[in-house]
Design brief:
- The chain has one domain: 3-Layer(aba) Sandwich (Rossmann fold), CATH 3.40.50.
- By secondary structure, the chain is an alpha/beta fold.
- It has an 8-stranded mixed beta sheet, sandwiched between helices. It has a two-stranded antiparallel ribbon with strand order 5-6.
- It is globular, with a radius of gyration of 17 Å.
- Helix 1 packs across helix 7 and helix 3 crosses helix 4.
């Protein structure tokens, strides 16, 4: 497993690839974990996708940034967060089945997390020489939200955005950013039985983007807060399509 640890800007990153020495990747996939997970939580997705898409092995590099905040004081050793959550309120919503409508909220720390992510991305692309147009932003849960926040305000569009079990935040802000951004393809997946970020929130996000002429490939699945195999299959196909067009 060709895994290395590097720091880009303010964030520590795990880098996985099977590229020959001194080979520049055609596509960089930046994959961000969710709240409470360790920084290397999604690293196994890299080898899994390459096993299923062998032709990508000498073309794609996966970068897995660790979120900036430690959760050790919350009793989660090794856990990281892009911004802090009100865990008590989340647990109450799960217990009562109350839908968490976050469309009007800009969570404390979201904008700062976006700035740190952007600094990491800028440093990564400066070193590799890969343009934004050959960079895919992807993430799970909170990681998908910070990826969306960044993707919508980049100076040029990324190759694509993948949102796994995300939701619509700060609707007015994201709507303005989406209006101003050049369009890029979006993959999105969400479980109909997700107790943490309800399915309705994913639909609201999908509709917000589609109303602004973003092409959203949406995967609905019967299941909880997770990344389903069909979404990973589509992600692998996306990477294959992007490399074949270069």
């Amino acid at each position: 497993m060709a895994l290395t640890t590097r720091t880009f800007g303010p964030l520590s990153c795990q880098i996985y690839d099977q590229l020959p020495a001194e080979t520049k990747p055609q596509i960089i996939a930046v994959v961000s974990h969710g709240f409470g997970a360790p920084g290397d939580d999604l690293v196994p997705l890299g080898p899994e996708i390459l096993r299923q898409n062998a032709a990508l092995a000498d073309k794609v590099q996966f970068v897995f940034p660790a979120a900036p905040l430690s959760l050790i004081e919350m009793g989660i050793p090794g856990g990281r967060a892009w911004w802090m959550l009100d865990v008590a309120a989340l647990n109450e919503a799960i217990a009562t089945g109350k839908i968490r409508d976050q469309r009007g909220q800009t969570p404390d720390g979201l904008l700062e997390a976006g700035q740190q992510y952007r600094a990491m991305l800028d440093a990564l692309l400066q070193e590799t020489g890969v343009p934004l147009s050959q960079c895919v932003l992807a993430g799970f849960s909170q990681g998908s939200m910070v990826s969306t926040e960044v993707a919508l305000q980049l100076p040029e569009p990324p190759a694509a955005l993948a949102i796994w079990s995300g939701t619509l935040l700060c609707e007015e802000r994201w709507g303005v950013l989406a209006d101003q951004s050049a369009r890029f393809p979006v993959q999105q997946s969400h479980g109909t039985q997700d107790p943490i970020l309800p399915f309705d929130g994913a639909i609201w996000l999908k509709e917000m983007l589609e109303q602004r002429d973003y092409a959203v490939d949406f995967t609905e699945f019967v299941g909880p807060h997770t990344i389903p195999q069909p979404a990973l299959d589509k992600f692998g196909s996306l990477l294959a399509d992007l490399t074949s067009s270069l």
